[in-house]
Specification:
With 257 residues, the protein is α/β, with parallel strands linked by helices. The chain has ten helices and ten strands.
Length: 257
């Protein structure tokens, strides 16, 4: 695994909601096997940027895209790209756990079945639950409803569901913000473990969390028109100890939020 290899790249990315420009001219890179944190004040476009990386914004009728996002050197917004197939390679975990009203097993198996998986589904489900550090807790109740799990377990189940189709990149939108401190720690430990296999991009409002889990950090702000833009992107330790831009330092030290 070459951690210098760029797997995901945005070039002058712009996203509009109707006539409102939400993010403007963002250049961004995510490297293989690294965790990249997106930080910045509320409303700066972190989640919009994240959803742009696997075309989740396509589901919003008013959205328009400018610039490009390349995955493995191919523009994902090219008309020849199948968004469903793309999302199997760039998975998504949302802020609040969103298990389906199905059994634990069927939640994890869902994407495999949709994509016509021809291998051993039970084996794939077990592998994914093990990767999400959930197998030992649920192996004797796979046919029980996913809603019987705790909030932290539900979020790990959603991570297992995303991993089941073996993506290359996993996008996480504040995956621990709705969880208690113990469950949050479990998710953070899991993120570090998963980065051995996957490239991860995570949105977080928690500066300590960004410092703990990420290898690189990108800081966004908003201009006078409320459009989000990228201020600085670099090694996490450098961003948090010696940022190049005074606005980054002001945000990290809490002088504005």
């Amino acid at each position: 695994m070459d951690r210098r290899e760029v797997v995901l790249k945005a070039d002058r990315l712009r996203v509009w909601y109707g006539s409102f420009l939400a993010i403007k001219d963002v250049d961004f890179q995510a490297k293989v096997g690294m965790v990249t944190a997106l930080i910045g004040p509320s409303g700066c476009g972190k989640s919009t940027l994240l959803r742009s990386f696997n075309r989740m914004n396509d589901l919003i009728p008013s959205v328009k895209i400018g610039g490009s996002v390349e995955f493995r050197g191919r523009n994902i917004y090219d008309s020849s790209v199948d968004p469903t197939e793309l999302r199997s390679r760039i998975g998504m975990v949302f802020q609040k756990p969103n298990p389906f009203p199905k059994s634990i097993f069927d939640n994890v198996a869902f994407g495999l079945r949709v994509n016509g998986y021809t291998g051993d589904i039970y084996e794939a489900v077990e592998r994914s639950l093990r990767q999400a550090a959930l197998w030992e807790e649920v192996k004797d109740r796979l046919n029980k409803s996913a809603f019987a799990l705790s909030g932290g377990q539900q979020q790990r189940l959603c991570i297992a569901r995303a991993l089941a189709v073996e993506p290359e990149v996993v996008l996480m939108d504040e995956p621990a913000s709705a969880l208690d401190p113990i469950a949050t720690l479990a998710i953070e430990q899991l993120i570090r473990e998963l980065s051995r296999v996957y490239t991860i991009v995570i949105v977080t409002h928690n500066m300590q969390q960004a410092a703990r889990v990420s290898d690189e950090t990108a800081f966004l702000m908003v201009d006078d028109d409320r459009a989000g833009y990228l201020v600085e992107h670099g090694d996490t330790q450098q961003i948090f100890t010696n940022p190049k831009d005074e606005r980054t330092e002001a945000y990290i030290t809490g002088r504005f939020s």
